[in-house]
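Sharing a chain and its predicted structure for anyone who wants a worked example. Both blocks are below, sequence first, tokens second.
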Amino acid sequence: MREYVVTVQNTDVSFEVQDGETILTAARKQGVWPQFECGWGSCGTCKATLVDGQVKNLLPDAPALTKRDSRKNRIILCQSIPESDVTLKARLLEEPEEHLTTADYNAVVTDVKLLTDEIALIRLGLNRPAPYQPGQYAILNLGGGLRRCYSMSNLPGGHELEFIVRRYPNGPGSQTMHTLTPGMELTLELPYGAAFVRETKRPKIFVAGGTGISAILCMVRQMSLWGDSMEQECMMFYGARTPNDLVLMDEINELFESIKDGSIIPVVDKADEDWDGEVGFVNNVVGDYINKPWDQYEFYIAGPPVMVQAMRKLLGEREVDVTRVHYDSFG
């Protein structure tokens, strides 16, 4: 297999990259740690300057790359595959950040449970326990070069991962996920992302849209584990298309019974005749329930990009400091 050499300018660091491998993946496998966060071309944390050589960008429309970046010959290491030996100008860390000890794992599908006709709870068994923070996500390799991000819904510490996945008609990733059956094998890498629950005394607002409940459920499970030791307010807004799409509500309600000052507000876009809760877009409901100055809260958001953007806009209008707004962008 062809290999290329990546050299980091003004350092004594160089490493080999296998044909078809991203620079970030090769680097971390060999104990070289550029700064990174999302692994998906969204955040721009892994930007570097291409000093010499050629790379292929797997995601030319990556949100993190601007026209100015192109003029400055900047690339994102998580989406760049060398096509020759390469010299970079990049900032390296001595060791990975505590929440980003990202590594590769082998997994086998252990269970697939349909929660609705279109939403499945998929469990994978790992070859070894994987450290991550509640709210973080993995990148799954689904074959044929197809890769997708999914947030874990279960707490870390074991050999198993859980994902809540909706099947979209035109989504090759979700369609493939819904073809998984017990015994099938795949590889994945984790953890990624910075939207994990913080152990602070500040009251927390969780906003989940659709299968964004996977990440939020993991964080609420952690809140339940902390129990009364946190002594803080916690509200969760859970939006879905219909009441039937509000999955795992029995468990979520049970979790909130163990949180001293916790409450959950389900919201649906389209109600049926039995529904007596909130109706509309979840971001339009949040303000009706917040009873303190908004900047006293810490916000955690997970869901479709349009919902995340709407919540960020709302919080910007309410002048909530960006350091108190936690979300990951991938899709």
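Comments welcome. The chain has a mean pLDDT of 94.
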